[in-house]
Specification:
5 helices; extended; about 10% strand; about 150 residues
Length: about 150
Amino acid sequence: MAVSPYQPDDAPDRFESGTMNMFGIAGLHAAVRFLLETGVETVRAHEIELMEMLLSSLRDIGNVTLYGPQAASNRLGLVSFNIQDQDPYEIARKLDESHDIKVRAGLHCAPQAHRMVGTVNKGAVRVSLGYFNTKQDIDCFIEAVETLC
């Protein structure tokens, strides 16, 4: 067999060069197995329950502005928000340093979405949740946001 610096022309060989991402394949396998065992409906129901709790609690804080659909059932596990007169990057830093809560701040690779909601000049804070979060996680997050307000 001859060695060549060029990719083969024929499919599927032209798509198979390099080392296979075995860790990615193993992770995907574990995720699919988990979803099949747990049930997508169970995962979604838990996420909606947590989202309702998160949205309701954030709405109760006077200085917080929420962006996106108001109904938990119309969301995935993301909430973008700002605190009046505070820089989103500062909020993220304080949540991290003072409360060990990791969030993202900025335009989130979506400047057009931020332009649409009026946050393109400063961005927003984005918190995410998923199946492995708990109600206690939401309580801790809300308590931390309240201290920043």
